[in-house]
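Hey L., structure's done. Input below.
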Amino acid sequence: MNAHSALWGYPNDGPLGNAMEDFISSINLHPLNVKDAGPIFQQRNAKVWPDLTLSIGQHLSNATSWEVLEHVSFSDHNFIKIQLNIKIKSHSYTRFKAAMGSQ
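Output:
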């Protein structure tokens, strides 16, 4: 999307980045990107951060870690590791089905 914003790692803001920040904020999304992380895409003469990871709700973004990995990816895009640091409570219920197919 080529939207430069310091919020997700670029060294400076651009008009498209500012518009993207406004849009993200207007629909209550939160970027998970860490602005001090390394570039997501790199070639010999370019280092950029084109990939955004967005979440719904501030609580989820506060409970998430996001990092760019430097493992060999055989691509000019680096891997991104997203880890949810939340406890999940799970409930299951047994449901019986009637013989005639009704529920």
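The first strand starts at residue 29 and ends at 31. The mean pLDDT is 81.

-- N.
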